[in-house]
Amino acid sequence: MSNPKRIFVVGHMGAGKALFSEALAKKLEWQVVDANPSIERYIGRQIQDILGEQGEIAFNHCQADIISHCIGKEKVVVLLEECVVSSDQCQKLLSSEFVVYLKVSIPTQRSRMKNGRTPSLPVDDMKSFLEKQHHERDALYEKVATLIIESLDYSDKISKSNKIIEEDVYKVMKSFKE
Description:
Blueprint: E1 6-11, H1 17-28, E2 31-35, H2 39-43, H3 47-71, E3 76-80, H4 88-94, E4 98-103, H5 106-115, H6 126-144, E5 147-150, H7 158-177
Parallel strand pairs: 1-3, 1-4, 2-3, 4-5
C-alpha cells in the first residue's frame, strides 16, 4: 500500500480518537483537523433524537461537506464525528479514502469515560446507550475502514497510555509498508 495523502479516523466515543489522531499527525508531521463536535457525547442522545429527522439530514450534509473539503487536502489526519458512518453520503465519500477505525469495547469505553478525557454522558442507562450505538454502527465503521485497530487497553497512567497510543500509531505506519 502506498502512503495515503490524508487519513480519516472514526470510532465510538471513548475509543481514543483525539489522542490517537494527535499522535499520528505528530509522527507523520501532518496537521490534525478536528471535525468532531461531539454533540452526542455531551448531550447523551443520538443525533436523530437531538435534531429530529430533518435536522439529522442537514447535519449529515454538513459532515459530508467537511469530508469533501478534507479530501481536497493533503498531509492531514481528520478526526470525525461518531455518527458520520450513519450517512450513506459520508460512507460513499470515505470509501475511497484511508480510514482508521479505532474499535473499542463497551467496558473499555466506560472506563475511559469514567476516568479520562471523555466525560460521562447524562443518560440513565449508559450500558444500554452504548450497546445501541455499537449495534447500529460497528458494521458501518468496519465497512468504511481501511485499517481496524483494536483499542482494547486502558490506563489512567500517562506513561502507559502514551505507550498504547504509540503502538497503535505504529500499526498505521506498518500498514503503509504492506
